[in-house]
Amino acid sequence: MSDTSPDTPAQPDGSSPPESSPPAAEASPSASSDAQVTATEQAPAAETWTAPDPAPATAAESTAAPAKAATPAPAAAAATAVPPQTYPAEMARFSPLPPPPPGFLQARWQGPDYAGGPAAWIAALVGGLATAIALPLSRPGIGWLLVGLVMTGAVWHAARFGPKPDTALERWIRVGWAVLAVALLSVGTFRNLGWIFVFCVLGAIACGSLAVAGGHSVRAVVVGAMAVPLAFFRAIPWLGRGARAWQQTRERSGTAGRVVLSLIVTFVLLVVFGALFASADAAFATLLGDILPELNARAIFRGVLYTLIGGLITAGAIFTVLAPPDLSGLERPAARRIGRIEVALPLGGLVLLFGAFVVVQLRFFFGDKAYIQKTSGLTFSEYAVQGFNQLLVVTLLTLIVIGLVSRWAVKETRQDRILLRTLLGALVLLSMVIVGSAAWRMWLYQNTYGWTRERLFFGSVELYLGGVFILIALAGWKLRAAWFPRAAVAGFAGLLLFLGAANPEHFIAEQNVERFQKLDFWYLRALGPDAVPALAELPEPYRSCALSWVIRDLKADPDQWYSWNLGRAQAAEQLKDMYILPARQSCNESDRLNASK
After folding, report:
1. 8 A C-beta contact, residue 121 and residue 137
2. How far apart are CA 183 and CA 500, in angstroms?
3. Which range scores top for mean pLDDT: 286-295, 309-318, 356-365, 452-461?
4. Closest CA to 405 of 470, 350, 487
5. How far, in Å, CA of 324 to CA of 540, rounded?
6. Low complexity compositional bias: what residue ranges (predicted)?
7. Cα radius of gyration rounded to whole Å, the chain
8. Which of 169, 347, 403, 562 could form a disulfide with 143 if both were Cys (CB 3.0 to 4.6 A apart)?
9. Of 33, 109, 23, whose CA–CA distance to 65 is shortest?
10. Cα distance between residue 288 and residue 291, in whole Å
């Protein structure tokens, strides 16, 4: 009997003719495989593992192997043939890994079944050109609203060909998200609040994404809010497939598509060459006026970049509205559950800890500055600022804990529901007291040391989180509220709209002017044009110093038609007839007067 272990090649039997045995270098793969299986069978029983039955295709290949081995190989193939790779017998214990499960995009968001044709290209081009022409990226302005309206119109037109929401209520909710997105972009038309408008733009993107993707649960709302940013990249191959398909059928298409394409090319050529002629000749530029922009390398780069970004945002929104992601798997309740002990011990510990903190804090809620300094051993500013950031983090973590417990806790029996309502209710009530403590600290600090944009914004966020706890308390009775995630997102958008309508920089300047004792002019000068009416009430030389940066910015960078802003326009009109001292003289005199107080 021949040795058939993997380390020793199979030797031919002495009774068979030498020419009928192939060389060892030309042994068939099936022979090597048979050798491995034989070695595995000869191994001890404790070290073997029985693999699943092979697939039919593998059996067919093993049946056909002797026929292949019997066929002599050419000399050239024998010279270049690679001997089959052998593995130790222990490798037969391991079965092949199963294929990975399909990802979210493959399973639940494959996109439209058809490519992005001429209609999608035209809509993307319209959105891109509107972005390149009218978007004032460096400042709030009316152009943000105009671009948002153009993109909304393009997506609304495409939505007629996509799937419709299941109910009339869901359709109105989608419309409400779109209106909220446009409203957030309109803040830049009325207020010069760059520090708030950044959040308004991000909120508009999230609300617009929810308008085309939908979503009810927390996970579905998060995915829905990121659908359009994700589709921004997925729209590139989608449009590419549409361009190739259109190119293949262009000769057989009618004249309508050619006319539209010719008009678009004509418009682009007129803009490019007209702007070049205007840059080359002053008389021609005067004839055209401000219709065409000044064209240089920077303007060309900006135009191309903005067109690509705006076009892909529009195409991504159309991609999503035509084939939104399937969020049904994210809407189902969690399969994993935690029992009473896992709920009662952690939540009970948190309730006791929160209760102890609230008892300590109640001493300071109605105390004045002297009482706080006497009982806490801290200065008033240290007490007010020391715990605000920590309490803000505590509030956010508490919301996360409540969300996880509400999703995973057992609710089958009446005792389970009573326990959950009791513990979560106590935690929510104590958290609302902690929110009030943080807001009270910030209120005390601002009323004593002045108001700033950062203090006002984070104080408003803390009050918003208190409103979220109120929503949790309303939803906690049934331990399930499909409206809560969307209400929380809409509430934050409402907070941004409220701040924009309240004109916070005017309020900050007004509060600081009323406390006119010793002013921080470095901070007052950093306020924007919205604060001009309040700063104009200061006496000289404080007024000229506080307004110096606003005047400089308005003169150095005047508004174009697409960057017009109501706050800047009113400030420029008020400053036009106001006598202003030189900045350096007024600020030096203000510093001298401040130092003497």
Report:
1. no
2. 11
3. 309-318
4. 350
5. 60
6. 16-33, 43-71
7. 36
8. 562
9. 33
10. 6
Question: Which positions ≥6 away from 596 have C-beta within 8 Å?
Answer: none
User: Helix, strand, coil proportions of the chain in percent (round to 5)?
Assistant: 70, 0, 30
Say if CB 486 and CB 173 are below 8 A apart. Answer: yes
Contact 532, 550 (CB under 8 A): yes
Question: Could you identify the residue written with the tokens 């499960």?
Answer: 101
What is the per-residue DSSP string for 468-535?
Answer: HHHHHHHHTTTT--TTHHHHHHHHHHHHHHHHHHH-HHHHHHHHHHHT-SS--HHHHHHS-GGGHHHH
Peptide bond into 485 cis (omega under 30): no
- Classified as helix, coil or strand, 597 is coil
**Cβ–Cβ under 8 Å, residues 460 and 443:** no
Pick the closest to residue 310 from 154, 474, 510 (CA basis). 154
> Which residues make beta-bridge pairs with 570?
none
pTM of the model: 0.74
In terms of Cβ atoms closer than 10 Å to its own Cβ (0-12, 13-18, 19+), residue 76 is exposed
The C-alpha atoms of residue 104 and residue 327 are separated, in whole angstroms, by: 10
Select from 486, 547, 412 the least CA-distant residue to 221.
Answer: 486
| Local structure of residue 73 (DSSP, 8 states) | P
Distance CA(98)–CA(100), nearest Å, equals: 6
Q: Whole-angstrom distance between the N-terminal and C-terminal Cα of the chain?
A: 111
Confirm if 235 and 316 have CB atoms less than 8 A apart.
yes
The tokens describing 542, both together, are: 């404080």
Please name the residue that has the structure tokens 């308004």: 200
The model's pLDDT over 189-225, given as tens digits with 9 standing for 90+, comes to 999 988 899 999 999 999 999 999 988 888 889 999 9
Mean pLDDT of 317-345: 81
